[in-house]
Design a protein that fits this description.
The protein has helices at residues 15-32, 46-53, 58-75, 133-140, 156-164, 175-178, 202-215, 237-246, 255-263, 276-284, 297-302, 307-331; strands spanning 3-7, 35-39, 86-92, 117-123, 152-153, 170-171, 190-196, 218-222, 231-233, 247-252, 268-270. With 339 residues, the chain is an alpha/beta fold.
């Protein structure tokens, strides 16, 4: 059986990290029947876990600990690999692995396949989230992308970074768009306003709560314990997808919050702020009108999303992603499963 290594971050304390590696892992197993192993150099430090769980309210503390447990259980379902082993194909991706300004990541060369033993080196939908040529070169030195046979990026800023090193690349959808979650989720309509974001300003909180009150729905925080919400949901990454799909309204400020909402056809709004990767995602699907800063929260929610055309675009771009992966695997002499 052919062996594939996915080089990524897979144990961070957020749902997006877990979903992107789960999706890519499942696609590679299902499509190529390969032995897929995950290689990572990043583990959340005890300090970060403590900050995430810190809470004076014992009920909320218990909820946070349960969330950490669910994420950790989900992560442990992956088959972990060894960097010293030989692989037929090594794939770096996805998420913002090339964001050298992200201090939570360990930038020791693994994300450019330094000291990785493989026949073929590629990336899939990797992101730098706005890092410049000089900033990237300062960490990884001259010609840092020469190891790669194929390069796939997730957004425009990363595309510009790659081309600044005189390398060609293809822009692909995040792996969460490639996997059909329908067979593994069980959604039911919930009359709630779901909230997923690391922080919100007092003005944003007031707008969200006022809108929920006018619509007579509860505010529900998922993953992040927004103390001002009516409820807090403890769930694993798959249940996270279920909640987004079933929510009447969804407010987020994260890339994967937007990505799952788009894929599951959920009525959502986004606080883009200065987040380049969120901007690029919404711009790609012509959804910059979902940025709350453009209009009021109510007007943004009331503006209908043309999911019919978006779903058609997703299908086309999914096929492009599969064609790219087929090309990479063919170079590594890994055949597609035709069953």
């Amino acid at each position: 059986m052919k062996k594939i290594a996915i080089i990524t971050v897979c144990d961070a304390l957020n749902f997006g990290t877990h979903l992107q590696i789960y999706a890519l892992n499942q696609i590679l197993i299902q499509r190529y029947q390969a032995d897929v192993k995950v290689i990572t150099n990043s583990h959340p430090p005890l300090k970060e876990r403590f900050i995430f769980a810190r809470c004076r309210n014992p009920i909320k503390l218990l909820r946070k600990i349960r969330t950490m447990f669910k994420l950790n259980t989900f992560y442990k379902k992956l088959k972990m690999g060894d960097i010293n082993f030989h692989y037929d194909v090594a794939i770096v991706g996805s998420d913002e692995l090339w964001n050298t300004k992200n201090e939570k990541l360990v930038h020791d060369g693994l994300f450019v396949c330094k000291n990785v033993d493989a026949e073929v080196y590629a990336t899939y939908a990797v992101s730098c989230n706005g890092v410049t040529h000089d900033e990237f070169e300062e960490i990884y030195g001259n010609n840092p992308l020469n190891q790669f046979d194929y390069i796939s990026v997730r957004d425009t800023s990363t595309e510009l970074l790659v081309r600044s090193f005189q390398r060609e690349c293809l822009k692909q959808l995040d792996p969460t768009f490639l996997l059909d979650f329908s067979p593994i989720i069980n959604s039911k309509r919930r009359d709630i306003l779901l909230v997923y974001g690391y922080w919100f300003t007092d003005e944003e909180i007031n707008d969200i709560c006022s809108f929920a009150s006018r619509k007579n729905v509860k505010t529900v925080s998922i993953g992040m314990d927004c103390k001002w919400c009516d409820e807090y949901v403890v769930c694993d990454p798959i249940e996270f997808v279920e909640y987004i799909e079933s929510a009447a309204y969804f407010v987020t400020s994260t890339f994967h919050g937007c990505a799952i909402a788009i894929q599951r056809n959920t009525n959502f709004v986004a606080y883009i702020r200065d987040n380049q990767k969120v901007f690029d995602l919404l711009d790609e699907f012509k959804l910059l009108n979902r940025d709350v800063s453009k209009h009021t929260l109510e007007k943004t929610f009331e503006e209908e999303i043309d999911f019919s055309s978006i779903n058609h675009e997703i299908m086309e771009k999914k096929q492009q992603g599969f064609v790219y992966l087929d090309m990479v695997m063919e170079r590594g002499r890994i055949k597609r499963n035709e069953g």
